[in-house]
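In keeping with the milestone schedule agreed at the kick-off meeting, the structural modelling team has produced records for the first pair of proteins. Each record is given below as a sequence line and a structure-token line. The laboratory manager (R.T.) confirmed that both were archived under the project's standard naming scheme.
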Amino acid sequence: MNKWFSRYLFCFLVFFMGCNQNNQPSMEKPPGADYDGQAFTFQEVGDGIYHIKGTGVLSVGCNSTLIVNERDAVLVDSHISPAAMWALFTEMTAITDKPIRYVINTHFHFDHVHGNQMFPEDVKIISHTYTRDMIAAGNSKRGRSYDAFIGRIPDRISELEQQLASATDDSTKSVFRDRIRLQKNYKEATDAVMPRAPNERFTERLQYKFGDRLIQILFFGRGHTGGDAVVFLPEEKILIIGDLLSTGISYLGDAYPEEWVRTLERLKKLDFETILPGHGDPIEDRKKIDHFQAYLTDFWKQAVQMRKDGVEADEAAKRIDMTAHASHYPRIKEAGVSIFGVQRVYELMEGTAK
């Protein structure tokens, strides 16, 4: 009996450990995951709902949201690299020991989806169809957005090395050395990315029930990209909005500004009290949606007129004047906007936008 019991117990433990490992993400430390201190802060905004932000010691890209349910957890957005996702796996153990079984990508941008590859195959990674198709086609790792933010890392390293070489005091040299180290670590992390497309898609609506918690994944129309998903927790009145809204001005390089205004108007009908943006702190003032709609409307009007007047995009970016919105966006000090948003408007008018 003892011999057979021992064999049974051994087989059971091997089976149990194998199942447990399959439920957990790969914990092998990926390239570019070297950092000191804590990479993330976890702000509990509801029962088991955490707004997660980077601290700056590691490049992590976007915010994410962790929703801890009775048996497992849901993560909204997987950050900018395997390294960032590895850091989150490591640090979230202070919050919960429950495995992430569902990942929701709000849109296809690299800073929101390039941690996908760290999850086991049986984890559901969910997105709008457009987002899934863009990632599958390799568009999260190329194009205007990627080139501007990731493609220029070597140039930034070279610039910092030149500044280090010309620095004269030890404290300034130390600052530049730290910045160079962070950028080199960032490059290692992004070089290790192998974009992984979601394995479950939707077009308008998905709904999951986890015990008493209801989670809705919704699409209200094009805006920041062609496939922006929002995650709505109706009982908690929390809306996880991706980059459809930010505490500042959202990136417009892949946007549909005119449609974005209408998309925001439709989602206003939801009964929410707290907005968790893809960048910045939680938002509780719904008027911030109105402010951004006004900004988008004005920007679209001015950019369209510039195109009609035959003004080149780079010149238009210098002339467009958004200072009327400075009271809501204090970083606006003078005329001039990002060239990427203007280029996007011109593409939309020319019918060449993807």
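The second protein of the pair:
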Amino acid sequence: MKNIFADKSEISAIEAKDIAQQWAFAPVFFQTIVCLRKTGIFDVLNQTRKGCTLDKLASSTKVSKYGVKVLVEAALTAGFVSEEDGVYTITKVGYFLGNDPMTGANIDFVNDVCYEGMFSLLESIKEGKPKGLKKLGDWPTVYEGLSELKEPAKSSWLNFDHYYSDGSFEEALDYLNSKGHKHIMDVGGNTGKFALAYTKRSKEHQVTIVDLPGQINMAKKNIGQYEVASQVNYYPTNILSADSETPSNVDAVWMSQFLDCFSDDEIVFILEKLKRNIPEGTPIYIMETFWDNQRYDSAAYCLTGTSLYFTAIANGNSKMYHSKDFVEILGRAGVGVDEELLLTKDSYHTILRCTAN
């Protein structure tokens, strides 16, 4: 996996120092991007192909000329806009910052969920606890508080999560359908999107969602309005509790973007618990966004950044895993990988079909 910013080993000391200054001011320019989006400056520039003067931007966005000027001048030096004879036009980078759904989901997640909490990253690393979570609420981990998150953090968290899962469903469902499973346990089912999609495929499909009570309530609300609601069962529990169990009357287990929410030892604990409860030979399907299995270098960059969100905000001890590290963890739990599928229609996910050794 090469560096997203390409190999910088041959650049001069002056060039390296120049790049270092860009990183030094990166948080300032990130907030500039947030302002350019929220004020509508990006929107106006995108809609006006011939460009705009500062006066036109100020009148169109109702932002003071001073405010427009400082934001646009920063955008100019960062390469988000270009200027000729006092007329500003949006660049390709600026277009994606202002209009691309993936970039928007990332920006909103970082700004609304992560930004303030990342001030506690070092403290979180030292203590192994999500010390930045206090900026969102008073819970041991973000998962206990997810259903109670205030806006805009709640919507930004869910939009981020759904953006990187929804695109994988079609191919993942085709794969599961080919295996002929009728009743799947969806561990970490969250808001029920996967359960809804799977049951819509066939009236014979059943799903039991296993998750925390707050997430189960969200899933019930989302699924209850559809005809397939009778095909979905719910099992509220904290899977990390020593005295909790999981359903046994299923013919497959599905976990999508779930195990990355736990530490190595917790993953082993969860898998060993599942093994005790499900029938021998029951396949366990794990879908994850391994950072080394990415088609694009920018995806690996975003995923390793997401690991730091886990550290400072989510739980203090989990991460986005390298595939080899993850397989080693499975081995510790006595679980072997029978099949590996890199989704081709989706640029991020890998499905591991596993069984107990």
